TrEMBL record:
<dbReference type="GO" id="GO:0006508">
    <property type="term" value="P:proteolysis"/>
</dbReference>
<dbReference type="GO" id="GO:0016788">
    <property type="term" value="F:hydrolase activity, acting on ester bonds"/>
</dbReference>
<comment type="similarity">
    <text>Belongs to the peptidase M14 family.</text>
</comment>
<dbReference type="Pfam" id="PF24827">
    <property type="entry name" value="AstE_AspA_cat"/>
</dbReference>
<dbReference type="GO" id="GO:0004181">
    <property type="term" value="F:metallocarboxypeptidase activity"/>
</dbReference>
<keyword id="KW-0862">Zinc</keyword>
<dbReference type="GO" id="GO:0008270">
    <property type="term" value="F:zinc ion binding"/>
</dbReference>
<keyword id="KW-0479">Metal-binding</keyword>
<dbReference type="InterPro" id="IPR000834">
    <property type="entry name" value="Peptidase_M14"/>
</dbReference>
<protein>
    <submittedName>
        <fullName>Succinylglutamate desuccinylase / Aspartoacylase family protein</fullName>
    </submittedName>
</protein>
<keyword id="KW-0378">Hydrolase</keyword>
<feature type="domain" description="Peptidase M14">
    <location>
        <begin position="30"/>
        <end position="302"/>
    </location>
</feature>
<dbReference type="InterPro" id="IPR055438">
    <property type="entry name" value="AstE_AspA_cat"/>
</dbReference>
<feature type="active site" description="Proton donor/acceptor">
    <location>
        <position position="274"/>
    </location>
</feature>
Amino acid sequence: MTTPAPYPIGTPGTPWGPAEVAAWLSRQSKHRSYADEVQSKIDALRARFDVAEYGRLDYAPESYPLFAIKTRHWRDDLPTMLITGGVHGYETSGVHGALLFVDRHAADYEGRANLLVAPCISPWAYERIHRWNPSAIDPNRSFRENSPAGESAALMQLVAPLRDKVLMHIDLHETTDTDESEFRPALAARDGKPSAPGEIPDGFYLVDDTENPQPAFQQAVIEAVAKVTHIAPTDAKGEIIGSTVVAPGIIRYPLRKLGLCAGVTSARYTTTTEVYPDSPRATPEQCNEAQAAAVCAAIDYALAHR
């Protein structure tokens, strides 16, 4: 068995301090433009939807506005559906799947539901194709009171007035090969823990809430996505990324306990999508389509089972 090489930053077994975080940050560089690839698409939607700047991340010398897209004719008597993407900036289809949904499908729900879409929660990480923010903090473990992540705190402030009015929240993610080659080793190094090799599932899957399981809701989303791309099989242990599979393509996490984005409201229906963009059986376009299909199925189910 091959022993993994030590992560290039820090001392094995010792959690990072400020010097190690600074060394990690010095290795990060921009690979794409939030303004060109995301903000421009949001701007193109302004003619049909309301767009609000709900926060700004100041990471000198750069500053990133955070945008939410909303139903133009918002009605307090209608259920609210929350769609979030780009909590992990490197998970591309989470961002562009959310934007695709708004462009192609959001108008279908006019007069039936209020939609609130935050398509790119972590723009700094989007540009650097990374999981963390500049402080080496994972926003998707930081949705809790007094959050250390500005990305998480800004979204929580946005949804706070609606927290008990949201019927459905779907959070769009990806599981990639770099989870195994870069991000899990980096996490282990940051926390001073050993890095254990894992297995990346080939296909789409969902994360339900351990504390509020909604199996029929999850199944409806899986069935819709299966028409677009393949569903992840279990591994030899009957698991997906170390978690027991409770139904084809479905695992469960305690969302609020882990500080995950999908736990920020009191929504009856919650789920986290996971697309596998590195699969030889899927294209980037399919991944975006799968995310949009998941959103439509989630909203449709929630409306039919209020």
